[in-house]
Every structure is written in structure tokens, then in C-alpha cells.
Amino acid sequence: MLAAERQQRILDMLLKSGAVSTGKAAKVLAxxxxxxxxxxxxxxxxxxxxxQHGGAVRLNESHRDLSLHSRESANVxxxxxxxxxxxxxxxxGDIVFxxxxxxxxxxxxxxxxxxxxxxxSALKVAIELAKHPLIQVILTGGAVKPSSLSCQGSLxxxxxxxxxxxxAFLSCRALDAKRGVSxxxxxxAALKRKVMSLADQTILxxxxxxxxxKSAYFYAKLEDIDxxxxxxxxxxxxxxxxxxxxxxxxxxxxx
Length: 255
Hints:
The protein is an alpha/beta fold. It is built from 10 helices and 15 strands. Strand 4 (95-98), helix 6 and strand 5 form a beta-alpha-beta unit.
């Protein structure tokens, strides 16, 4: 196993559990503890984890631009629940925008073959929806970011400005009642801010782990969100702010 693959698997373990011992990592990866310690050292030097006695712990990841693989493997059940709720907001004939988040990708996977126009910055979303002949897919183009397989930048903005978007389905890295919705990179924040300025309706998909956290770059106030779809009650402060702007909260039944 190559070092890059080992280290990515270590990060995936940290993403799921928050901490991993040297012995457990060695057993799971079928390598020596000395090799694990060297990988821990390399990842710490890159600012991706913090070594502790006997293992390592993850850093505050709301500020880091995680790989698509890492994001897709976290909180999968919660994302699928949110995607199922979001699907009820899509109807034949709609023109929607899908961002490059792993939660919105789960929504794309649920869509049936109906007459629909989907504008997206996400390569994986475009490939997934291209399977459906009735869905018109418009890929924004622009500079492709390898970590997220998404388009961004000035060329992306030019294409977006030519599109009419009725409903924008966005996610985020963090959601705070006072400061609002944030992303790990300024490019992603700028893209989502642009989409919101063009869309008739903004629908935010965010699982409960995002609530009460601040990432690096804010792109919207909660008052600007029309629908917040989440898997668990986000707290009275978040709900109050969303509703103060005329927005609504959508939860699974019984939550």
C-alpha cells in the first residue's frame, strides 16, 4: 500500500471516530506500528492531525477543505435522510442548482428520470444525472478543484449569470445561529454566494454535526435561507433565526 493511500485511510478513520490509536491503525492497515508513527508524523507536519501519546486525534476540520472521498464517507445515514426530504421539494419542470457537496450528491442519486433542468458545478453530479435522458444537465464549467471535483472561478460565474435557477440546493461546512452559514474555502463561499443571488429559492441541506460550528468563510445569513433541511432538531436559536427571515425548517417525522 502506498504512503498516500495509507495516510488517506488514517484520515478517514479520524473523520469517523475523532481519534485512533497506533495499534488500531496498524491492525486495520496491516502495517507495522513504526510505519503508522511515520505516517502520523507526516500528516501532523501537513496540519492534518495532532499526535497524542499512543495515537493521534483529528484537528478542527470545519476549517479544512476535505477531500470528496472523506466527506462522502462521513454521516452517510444522516445525509441520505436529508436527501430524501429534499427530494420532495423537486418537481417535474423545475430548474435547480446542485452544489458539489456530498449531501447534495446523495440527492442527485435519488432523482428519478423526470423532465428537469439541473445546473451544477459538480462533475460527479453531472455524471450521475447524465444517466437520465429526461434530465437536462448544465455543467457550469470553470476551473476544476481536484479535492471536490467541482468547478469554480470567474468562468463559472459567467455561465451562472446566463441561467435562471428556481431552487438552489446547497450545503455547508458549518452553521452558526449568529454568524450564519460558512465554507472552508473562499472559492466555495463565493460560488454559493453567487448562486444565492441568482436563485428564486435557497434550500440548505445540513446534518446536525454542522450546527453550532463556524468554518473559515461565511457566505450567507440564516435569515437568507428559505428552507433548512436537517436530520435533527438544530436548537431554538437556529430555528428562530431561520423563521425570522421567513424561512422554514424541515425535519424527519418524529424529530
